[in-house]
Amino acid sequence: MKIIFSSCTEDELWRFVATHLQKKGIDTILVGGAVVSIYSDGAYRSGDLDFVLNTFLRDGLDEAMEDIGFVKKGTRHFIHPECKHLFVEFPGGPPLGIGEDYTIIPEEIESEGVKIKILSPTDCVKDRLANYIHFKSRECFDQAVMVARKHPINYESVKKWCEGEHSPSTFEALVEKLKS
Questions:
Q1: Is position 2 within any domain?
Q2: How far apart are CA 126 and CA 163, in angstroms?
Q3: 72 in helix, strand or coil?
Q4: The total number of structural domains that make up the chain
Q5: What is the CATH number of the domain that holds 103?
Q6: Which ranges of the chain does DSSP label H, i.e. alpha helix?
Q7: What is the rounded distance in angstroms from the CA atom of residue 49 to the CA atom of residue 51?
């Protein structure tokens, strides 16, 4: 897979990095704002890609990232000298969770003969709402709306999740915003 680092999108960089890591035996799931960027067809730009590792071991991660030109900065960030507009981060995991929900099943996408993983549109909405609920980020609420307007969402699942986060009013606000 070829990539032009100086102008790549979040989607292109995700596919490139995740495919490379999966081929090295490192299973990841894309989460956070880059997922919004992908599901909004670039209407939102995140600036970074957050990958959750599907293992507690980080064995081989630094070397695998170096193989494709990334340099480690700090404990969890990687930058590519030709990719000034995006960086890669490994914030933690496993387990993958959204708020109090640790039963997340990511979407799997075929890329160069391997399966790479990303939050589903429904879980992306929950992830953005989690930031709204717990950190009062209005921008994240707006991102949830953006994804919900472009993709089929399991609203019953989002409603139950909001109730589990002790914030049923967040679901009501989401539905109201989607009506307007």
A1: no
A2: 12
A3: strand
A4: 2
A5: 3.30.460.40
A6: 10-23, 33-39, 61-67, 121-135, 138-150, 155-164, 168-179
A7: 6
Q: Is 96 exposed, middle or buried (0-12, 13-18, 19+ CB in 10 A)?
A: buried
28 lies in which domain range?
10-119
Q: Would the pTM of this model clear 0.85, i.e. be above it?
A: yes
Q: Rounded to whole angstroms, how far apart are CA atoms 161 and 138? A: 19
Task: Render each residue's pLDDT in the chain as its tens digit; 180 residues.
Answer: 789 999 999 999 999 999 999 999 999 999 999 999 999 999 999 999 999 998 776 789 999 999 999 999 999 999 999 999 999 999 977 788 999 999 999 999 999 999 999 999 999 999 999 999 999 999 999 999 999 999 999 999 999 999 999 999 999 999 999 999
Q: Which of 39, 43, 49 is nearest to 10 (CA)?
A: 49
Q: Alpha-carbon distance 118 to 154, whole Å?
A: 16
Do 88 and 15 fall within a single domain?
yes
Residues 62 and 148 in one domain: no
- For 112, phi and psi rounded to 5 degrees? 50, 40
C-alpha–C-alpha distance, residues 129 and 170, integer Å: 8
Note whether 35 and 17 are same-domain residues. yes
Report helix, strand or coil for 110.
strand
